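Weekly structure sync - notes
Attendees: PM, LS, DV (DV joined late)
Agenda: review two folding runs queued last week.

Item 1: First target. Sequence and structure tokens pasted below for the record.
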Amino acid sequence: MGGPHVRSGASDHELDACETAAASCSRVEAFVLDALRARGAEGFTGDEIAAHFEEADIAGVWPSTATKRLYDLAKTGQVVLTGGSRTTRRNCSAAIYVAREFAPEEVIP
């Protein structure tokens, strides 16, 4: 119980808080991965996934949290950068992410 990021001697309250946070992260990661899979090869930029969650208005999911989970999923390899980019709402270039099963072969590590 608690995982590797919980200090030794943590109270039951601290352990419960860590478990709640971990469950919340897993829930948001699942939402992000589902959204990416539904989007297919088109994928999302970080800005687009944030906008998607703003529009969806999913209870308890902040758009910035969805963006963070997108980056976390990329670290685990479940989400892959395509090598392409699109313009954000602020007119900046942003990398495109797709669920691994939609990634072009040449970009899969």
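Item 2: Second target, run right after the first with the same settings.
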Amino acid sequence: MLNEREKRIQERAERAERGPWEWKEMSPGKPYSTIMIMSEDEYLHRGQAWPSEENADFIAHSRADVPYLLATVGRLRGLLKLARLYMAYDDDGAFEKAIQDVDAELESCEQNV
């Protein structure tokens, strides 16, 4: 159940290298500095442009994507907390089952990171 923005974020993440990533300052002490961000796979392919276009796109959007995703997680956790308060009034167990489904989906998302 992703909205359009979340689908674009997911697409960028899927196109980028899985990592782990690291960064290196290429010109320390100079008035200009080049910072190289790469995964282990990119490091092994030095003849290619790095970061790759896909990784550069992922990096460029991360400043907006990460706060958006963190705010979304915060809202979901708040809603889940509120829903748990209402579970006390759940006579037939349907609400509790729905909460368990949401918990399972959140855990699945966390494991895929």
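Discussion on item 2: The CA atoms of residues 106 and 112 lie 10 Å apart.
Action: LS to circulate a short write-up before next sync.
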